[in-house]
Design brief:
Layout lengths: L3 E4 L11 E3 L6 E3 L6 E3 L2 H7 L5 E3 L4 E5 L2 E5 L3 H8 L6 H11 L9 H26 L29 E5 L3 H8 L5 E4 L4 H4 L9 E3 L3 H4 L10 E11 L10 E3 L9 E4 L11 E9 L6 E2 L3 H16 L3 E3 L11 H16 L18
Parallel strand pairs: 1-9, 6-12, 10-16
Antiparallel strand pairs: 2-3, 4-8, 5-8, 6-7, 11-14, 11-15, 12-13, 13-14
């Protein structure tokens, strides 16, 4: 057994999952955007439940489209509302999708991928401008993988996810991380810049690096990778009840600059007379959240990947270090399986296979 030093640049644990009690409203809210845990992985679920109690929570999202509140992901109700249809059954929905989906010999970009899944009308109304607000690029300028998992229900299901396990931590994510880090061999240092300590780390010491890979190799002369960040605009309302009908309301159109409004008191049915909402707008500046997967960045990452593979005694793990979008459950499973491969006798253990559901719509 060896001691492990955890270095965190921010003044808190938990990364982007960090949550806190708002002083004015006493509402539990996330600092970096709503985080809804969902997974089909029994291994991941069993891991997280070792470090706290979780409550079943089936997340639902609606969007304000054509002055109507519509279910998102689109389902039969959404199609009837936005496309003037009168679909009543799964069979009728399947038939409608088959007729409206655009067929391509080869899908080359995000726009073609989206139209091949939902057709041109839903693409225009739900995904085109929302994608631009999210990425500052229209789907035609993004890799097809970015929109490869956009869901479209063929029934009346209003849930955002279909995973077997859909939960929220009863005490919040910060408490979960406190339990996770409560070990005598772990030493956590906050407000600490890894790069200021890097030169003092003795050779041969094992490093697990989870920051941006281009920051690690900033002295190599390559261009920087492109990321998107988020600005959070907080508004508080005293003795207001609820601001909106759902925890999350998306705004896919060009009419407003923000992508969505999150009202946190909905989550876990928090009881308070006040409310707080957060409007989210994406930006090129700020902490890196999302890798921008287009041809330029993916080709550039290959250069960084070559450098990281050659770096001795350093393991590059996680979303930023691999320039890849991970859901929370993917990040956990990736870490568990990486540990199996690199640090245990389970190197040949078969990896778990199941379908991940995208968070990024």
């Amino acid at each position: 057994k060896k001691k492990c030093l955890i270095i965190e640049r921010r003044n808190h644990i938990g990364g982007n999952c960090y949550d806190y009690i708002d002083d004015e409203t006493k509402i539990l809210m996330n600092m970096y955007g709503a985080h809804l845990f969902h997974t089909n992985s029994k291994r991941v679920y069993e891991f997280i439940t070792r470090f706290g109690k979780w409550a079943r929570w089936e997340h639902e999202v609606v969007g304000l489209i054509d002055s109507q509140i519509c279910p998102i992901p689109p389902n039969i109700t959404t199609v009837n509302m936005l496309c003037g249809a009168d679909i009543k059954t799964v069979e009728e929905m399947d038939e409608w999708l088959a007729k409206t989906q655009v067929k391509y010999e080869e899908i080359k970009n995000g726009e073609q991928m989206a139209k091949s899944r939902v057709g041109p009308v839903l693409y225009e109304k739900i995904f085109k401008h929302y994608t631009y607000k999210q990425w500052k690029k229209y789907p035609e300028d993004l890799d097809k993988s970015v929109l490869a998992r956009i869901p479209c229900r063929n029934n009346f299901d209003t849930r955002y996810f279909g995973d077997k396990y859909q939960v929220l931590p009863k005490e919040g994510y910060t408490k979960f991380f406190e339990h996770l880090l409560d070990h005598q061999l772990l030493d956590v240092h906050l407000n600490t810049d890894f790069f200021k300590l890097k030169g003092n780390i003795p050779k041969g010491k094992l490093i697990i690096y989870t920051g941006p890979v281009d920051s690690y190799f900033a002295d190599q002369g390559f261009e920087s990778l492109e990321y998107r960040s988020i600005n959070f605009h907080i508004e508080r309302y005293q003795n207001y009840g609820f601001y909106q009908p759902n925890s999350v309301v998306n705004y896919p159109g060009k009419e407003v600059p923000f992508t969505r409004i999150v009202e946190y008191k909905h989550f876990l049915n928090q009881q308070t007379p006040h409310t707080v909402i957060v409007k989210e707008t994406t930006t090129d500046k700020g902490d890196p959240y999302y890798p921008v997967l287009n041809e330029r960045n993916m080709d550039l990452f290959k250069k960084y990947k070559k450098l990281s593979d050659e770096e001795k005694d350093v393991h590059f793990v996680g979303r930023l270090a691999n320039y890849k979008y991970f859901n929370m459950d993917q990040a956990i499973l990736n870490a568990l399986e990486y540990f199996d491969e690199q640090f245990t006798s389970k190197k040949d253990l078969k990896k778990e296979e199941y379908t991940f559901v995208s968070d990024s719509v």
